[in-house]
Each structure stands twice: as structure tokens, then as C-alpha cells.
Write a structure and sequence with these properties.
- The structure is a single chain.
- This protein folds into three domains: about 10-185, Rossmann fold, CATH 3.40.50.150; about 215-345, no CATH class; about 350-480, no CATH class.
- About 40% of the residues lie in helices and about 15% in strands.
- The chain has helices at about 10-20, 40-55, 70-80, 110-120, 135, 140-155, 215-245, 275-295, 305-315, 320-350, 395-410, 420-430, 465-480; strands at about 30-35, 65, 85, 100-105, 120-130, 155-160, 175-185, 250-255, 260-265, 375-380, 380-385, 390, 445, 450, 460.
- Helix 4 crosses helix 6, helix 7 (about 215-245) packs antiparallel against helix 8 (about 275-295) and helix 10 (about 320-350) packs across helix 11 (about 395-410).
- The radius of gyration is 30 Å and the shape is extended.
- About 30% of the residues are buried.
Length: about 475
């Protein structure tokens, strides 16, 4: 169950103890769980605090962020709806303001994680961290000595024996833990709005990447970093403007009781969104651009398009760095083979649906239920529109496009380079006198010859018999693997 030797989910009773150290109203601020694992801490916060706020109709401006390097655990976090903003916490360059960092980092380098948390948490922010007790009790390294120094100056430590022993513990260990609490001194900033403060944002550095030409990616990352700098400067100017004009926008009136009431008029023409919301918007623009430029999804069939879009939205929350870009694109490429195999089986099932032996609908002798024949007959494919023009039935378009995509995958051809079934039919319907005849002339696309009939039937013949044989062979093997073989 636990492949990662450093993965020890935080027990609920220990999470409660950790949260009890935080100051009042911490749950309404930006919260980060680094090295989040399966998200036990964020799960507890969402289920016990955010849900309570919603039940009592309280509003919260809190944002919950996670960082995790194990891709299986990243998928788990996404499945729970958590926002993963980076893979590697120790190299993380914060774009968002983190008011609270709550963490159960790997015990093997917990000292480095705590020092990194101190670096990224905002002024006035709080850190609650679980460490192996030996990290604090035996400070033999420079990093451990720094941890001990921070605790002595800005926090406290409590030692707990058997914290990972009990009925609610998923993975048990008898190691003694140190529960560390730190509060970073607040920065002097009278202009802070919405609890957000502008920290120091350093430029990320990148190592060499094994993948091919990185010029486009380097350019986009540079543009992104400059965009974020401008957003931060604009936000800082908005804070300053609000501060400088506050008195000028203030009026005083008296209420019915004769009491003086202070009214501050809002700034007109000033964007009301928080810095976090603005950065998230910019982040999404650049990730969408990467997905569009690399044509991620162009070679995926309709069955998995929605799933892919959801994944793009999830990974679009990550920090926009070169390392993250190549890692995400590589992951999409690795998953593509599995998606395409599932898509092939889906197209195969649709292609063999209208066979003669079926009892649920009309079938044809040439269609088979165990393989796709050289000539395939698909009903309900063509319709005449109210303006007299014939076109492909809307509900059949996904199938025809998917059929082309599978053939491209099997042949190695690029989707954008072929004449698709739908485009070939469109051209034929525009040129051929279909309205006066019962059928079209033979229509030719990249992989098929076709005839369309007024009654709505489309006859599809495969040009490349070897490619068809490979299609059937892969479908047969895939169905056997899934236990669906006939």
C-alpha cells in the first residue's frame, strides 16, 4: 500500500493537536501543506472547518494549496479537489502569499523542509511542523542548528511518543516526534489589504532539461515571470493608492442617535480581486497557451477529451516553471498510450454494434460482432438540414473523428495532415448533386472510401487491409485483457 518510504499519513488526533496551536481565525487565510502526501491535513481542515463555515453561512477568503512530488499522490490530491501548485517544495518559488504552513514532511530531511517553510511563509504567518524528535534533540548539522535557533527565537517544541500508534493510524511507527510551532515576525506594512503582504519574489533558476528544443518554453517562462512582476507591482501600487487616498475618501455623518459614523468611499476603477486571484488568472493563461502550442489533446479521442480538459485545469494550477512544464507534458505523453488503447476499444465496440445477430436494432450481414470488416455500414450518419444541404449527423461526428484518430495512431500519421472523413463528406455534399440522387459518388478520405445514402446510411471501406488487421488484432487482445473476449 505504501510504496514511498517517507509517506506517513498524519493521524486525525495529531492533526487536531497541530491545529490547536494556531491563532484565532487561521482557517480564513491562505494555507499551504507542503509534501502533502494524500492530503490528510487539508482533508481534515476542509471537512471540519470549511464545511462548518459553509453550514453557518460564514464567508471565507481562504485558499488551500498543496505541494507533492509523488505523481500517484498528486492524482489523489487532484481527485479530492486540492490545488497542487508545485511538485518540489525545496525548490518552490512562491507566487502566492502563504499565511499558514501546516506540514508533516519526510523525516529524512524534515529540517530542510522547515527552513524552506520559514522562507516562504509571510510575515506574521504561522508554521506547525512535525519532525523526527532527533532532528531537534541531536542538532549535529548546520540545518538542524538553524532549526533549533528558530525554535528558541520564534516558537516552541513539544515531544510526543507513539504519535503514529493507534486505531486511526494508517501507517504505524514508534518514532518519537517533535511538534514544532513557529510564528514569523510581522513585516511593517500599513498598506496591507485583505491580509495579504508582498514578500520578496526571486527569479527561479533552471537546470538543463533532457527534452528537445526549449526555446519556446524559455521565452514563455520569461514572459510569465515578467507578467507576475508587473501584477505584483500593480497590486503594490493599488495598496499604496488606497492608503494615500483613504483619508480623502472618508466622510463623517451622524446617525439617529447622534453618533459620528465614519464612511470610506470605495476607489473607482480599481480592480477588487486579490493578488492570489490575479496570479491564478495569469497562471491559467500561460498553461492554456502551453497546452495549445503543444497540441496536447489533438490526438485524443472524444471519449477522453473531457478527462484531459479536467487534467489540464488541475495541472494548470502548478507554478509555471520549465521543470514543471516538461514534467507535465511528459506525463501526458506517457498516459497517451493507455488512453489510446481504451479509445481503440471504444471505437471497436461502436463499429461492431450494428451486426446482423443483434436483437436490439437493425443489423447488416457485412457487419460482424467480433471484428471490423473491410466494409462497414453505419446507420443514422447522414441527414438533410432544413436549408436543403446534407451533412453528418451531429451525434455521429465524434465516432467518425475518433475512427480517424485511431487510424492515425496506428499508422503514425499526424492528425492535422490528413483528409478526415467529415471534411471529405463536407466537400462531397457541397459538390455532388446528392439531392437529386439516392447516393453519392465514391468519396475518398485519407484512410477510407465511402458512399453516403439519403436514408442516412454511410458505407465505409478501409483502404489499408493491413492497418485494419492490426486494428482488429489490438482490439481482440485488449478485450481479452479486460476479460471481454468473445
Amino acid at each position: 500500500m505504501f510504496k514511498n518510504p517517507d509517506f506517513y499519513p498524519t493521524p486525525k488526533n495529531l492533526i487536531r493537536r497541530m491545529l490547536s496551536l494556531l491563532s484565532e481565525n487561521w482557517q480564513y487565510k491562505n494555507i499551504l501543506e507542503p509534501s502533502a502526501g494524500s492530503g490528510s491535513i487539508l482533508d481534515y481542515i476542509v471537512n471540519n472547518y470549511l464545511a462548518r463555515s459553509r453550514y453557518s453561512n460564514q464567508t471565507t477568503s481562504a485558499n488551500f494549496f498543496a505541494i507533492e512530488s509523488d505523481m500517484e499522490l498528486v492524482a489523489t490530491l487532484h481527485g479530492k479537489g486540492h490545488q497542487v501548485v508545485d511538485f518540489d517544495f525545496l525548490t518552490h518559488v512562491p507566487l502566492y502569499v502563504y499565511h499558514t504552513v501546516i506540514m508533516n514532511p519526510p523525516f529524512s530531511n524534515g529540517d530542510k523542509h522547515l527552513l524552506k517553510a520559514w522562507e516562504v511563509v509571510s510575515g506574521g504567518g504561522e508554521i506547525v511542523c512535525l519532525l523526527n524528535a532527533e532532528t531537534v534533540k541531536n542538532p549535529y548539522s548546520y540545518d538542524r542548528k538553524q532549526v533549533v535557533k528558530l525554535i528558541s527565537m520564534y516558537g516552541s517544541v513539544e515531544y510526543i511518543q507513539d504519535a503514529f500508534i493507534g486505531d486511526d493510524v494508517d501507517r504505524k511507527t514508534r518514532v518519537e516526534v517533535a511538534l514544532v510551532y513557529l510564528q514569523k515576525p510581522a513585516m511593517t506594512d500599513d498598506m496591507a489589504l485583505e491580509g495579504e503582504r508582498l514578500g520578496q519574489f526571486s527569479e527561479p533558476t533552471f537546470g538543463e532539461n533532457k527534452l528537445a528544443d526549449t526555446n519556446i518554453v524559455k521565452t514563455l517562462v520569461a514572459q510569465y515571470n515578467r507578467s507576475i512582476t508587473i501584477i505584483q507591482e500593480m497590486y503594490a501600487q493599488a495598496l499604496e493608492l488606497d492608503y494615500l487616498t483613504k483619508e480623502a475618501r472618508t466622510t463623517y455623518t451622524r446617525n439617529e442617535k447622534g453618533e459620528t459614523v465614519k464612511n470610506v468611499r470605495p476607489m473607482e476603477g480599481v480592480e477588487k480581486s486579490s493578488l492570489t486571484e490575479r496570479i491564478q488568472k495569469i497562471n491559467k493563461y500561460f498553461w492554456d497557451n502551453i497546452f495549445e502550442r503543444t497540441k496536447v489533446g489533438k490526438a485524443f479521442t472524444s471519449k477522453f477529451s473531457d478527462e484531459l480538459r479536467k487534467n489540464q485545469d488541475k495541472y494548470g494550477q502548478l507554478a509555471f516553471t520549465e521543470d514543471n512544464i516538461f514534467r507535465v507534458l511528459e506525463m501526458f505523453q506517457i498516459n497517451r498510450q493507455d488512453h489510446m488503447m481504451k479509445s481503440l476499444l471504444s471505437v471497436f465496440e461502436q463499429s461492431t454494434y450494428y451486426h446482423q445477430d443483434t436483437e436490439s436494432q437493425k443489423g447488416w450481414k457485412t457487419n460482424k460482432n467480433y471484428k471490423i470488416p473491410d466494409k462497414l455500414i453505419m446507420p443514422y450518419s447522414i441527414e438533410r438540414r432544413y436549408y436543403g444541404q446534407f451533412e453528418v449527423v451531429y451525434s455521429r461526428r465524434d465516432y467518425l473523428n475518433d475512427l480517424d484518430l485511431i487510424m492515425c495512431w496506428l499508422s503514425g500519421k499526424k492528425v492535422d495532415s490528413i483528409l478526415s472523413i467529415e471534411n471529405a463528406l463536407k466537400t462531397a455534399f457541397a459538390q455532388d448533386d446528392f439531392a437529386k440522387n439516392n447516393t453519392t459518388k465514391v468519396i475518398e478520405s485519407e484512410f477510407f472510401t465511402m458512399r453516403a445514402y439519403k436514408k442516412g446510411t454511410l458505407h465505409i471501406t478501409f483502404k489499408d487491409k493491413d492497418l485494419l488487421a492490426r486494428f482488429n488484432q489490438m482490439a481482440s487482445q485488449g478485450r481479452m485483457d479486460l476479460g471481454n473476449g468473445k
